Every structure is written in structure tokens, then in C-alpha cells.
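TL;DR need C-alpha cells for one chain.
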Amino acid sequence: MIRVLLADDQSLIRSGFRALLDLEEDIEVVAEAADGDEALRLAACHLPDVALIDIQMPGTDGIEATRRITADPALAGVHVVILTNYGFDEHVFDALRAGAAGFLVKDIVPEDFPHSVRVAARGDALLAPAITRKLIHRYVTQPLRTDTGTGLEELTGRERETVVLVAQGLSNDQIAERLVISPLTAKTHINRAMAKLHVRDRAQLVVRAYESGLVSPRTP
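>> reply
TL;DR here they are.
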């Protein structure tokens, strides 16, 4: 059973999302929060698999709530997904840097919503290739730096190749086809790279790849 926390200051939004998730046999909404402080308290109390958090809330906003959740070792199993009205903007990028596993626009097609929750619960990033391209072109085109001591030097050649392809928005199956390996092997390379770079999930792997200079917007 996938346990979900809903955090949004609009009760109508929470009710709508809850109604959709209540129809699913494998998903349970364990708590609802009306602000960021309440979301933090309930996350610690219920330890949900997925926390759906509105990016703009009174008091502690979604970005700060995300940062606190992902920084707390006791909440390591909580995958934060940001809810936004506006699509991909600078606030969403800040949330990704804070540790969010991805984001959903509130006008998502209802049929797609439960699937997105399942994707997040698996630890996969809610970052479609189109979103990754926006990430590249709008927010990582500034001069890049090459970090030291972040684990980059520990990556094998194949792990580096895999991270580059993840950052370009390819799925495990596409990476496997490109590198002529099995999807399971591709997933293994990705998991090892995430462990070495100390990131929680695929979304953080993309952000780290660009911020570290391992890949750049000009990478073919």
C-alpha cells in the first residue's frame, strides 16, 4: 500500500486529489495538511511514501518543507512531489534543488494522477523529457562549475555515460538500447551513481549532473 500525505492550503484541492486517490486499491491518503508546518509534523508522524506538497503555502512554504523533509534522515523514505499551478518555473527548480523528486501541475489529467503517485513511490523522477529540456535551457545555462569531493571521481566510465543519458531525459529502456545493455544493468548503473553522488533519486541525479559540470547544455 502506497501511503500519501497531501499538503495544500486549499481544501478544495486536497479534497479533489483525495477523491481520486481513494478510488485506487493500492494507494491510501494517510494525512492532510493545510500549511507547511503541519506538513512537516504529519510527515514525521505518518512517514508517508509520497508527500504531495503545494509549492506556495502560508508560513513554511513548499520549498522549505521539502528541504527539511529531505534533510531529515528519519524521513529518508519520503518522496516529495511538488504541486504547482504554473508548470515549470524558477520556484519548481528551487524545489528540485531542495530535494523534490519531481512536480505535478494541478490541472493534471485525473487518469494520470494515480500513476504519477506510483512513479514517485518507486523512487523514479517525475521529470518528463520535455521538462528536462526546460531544466537545461532555462535554469542551467549559467556558467557551470566542476565540483570536487562530490563523488564524481568515483564514477566508472559506464556510470558517467549513464548519468549523462539520464540528464538528457532518457528512460532506462532507452539508455539500455543506447549503450547496448539490459534495462536491469542500466538501472544498476543509475543506482550506483546515485549512491556515489549521495542523491536520493533520479531528479536529484539530473540536477547534480548539471550543477557539477559532468554534463552541460551543450553535451551532445
